[in-house]
Amino acid sequence: MRAESFAERELEIDGWPVRLATYKAGELYHSRADNVSPGATLARATGTTAEEAESKAIEEARRLLAGTRRRKL
Questions:
Q1: What's the CA gap between 16 and 48, in Å, rounded?
Q2: DSSP 8-class letter at 63
Q3: Distance (Å, whole) CA 35 – CA 47
Q4: Phi then psi dihedrals of residue 62, to 5 deg
Q5: Residues 3-23 pLDDT 10s
Q6: Do 25 and 4 meet the contact criterion of CB atoms below 8 Å apart?
Q7: Is 51 helix (H, G, I), strand (E, B) or coil?
Q8: What share of the chain is helix, strand, coil (3-state, %, to 5)?
Q9: Mean pLDDT within 42-66
Q10: Which residues share a beta bridge with 35?
């Protein structure tokens, strides 16, 4: 199976930079959200449309990042 319709963009979720990658494999779309530096995966999601997969990944990433504390320098 080959990935099609690959798209990648950066956005900000609750003050954190996040990279969102989406692609189609077979009949489903897959989306992965990671923190830009160091690039650790925050969430993965699958949907019948790109928008559905991205929405699920963003929702899970937002949930995880909301519980992350920032240290004041």
A1: 27
A2: H
A3: 21
A4: -60, -40
A5: 788 999 999 998 899 999 999
A6: yes
A7: helix
A8: 25, 50, 25
A9: 95
A10: 18
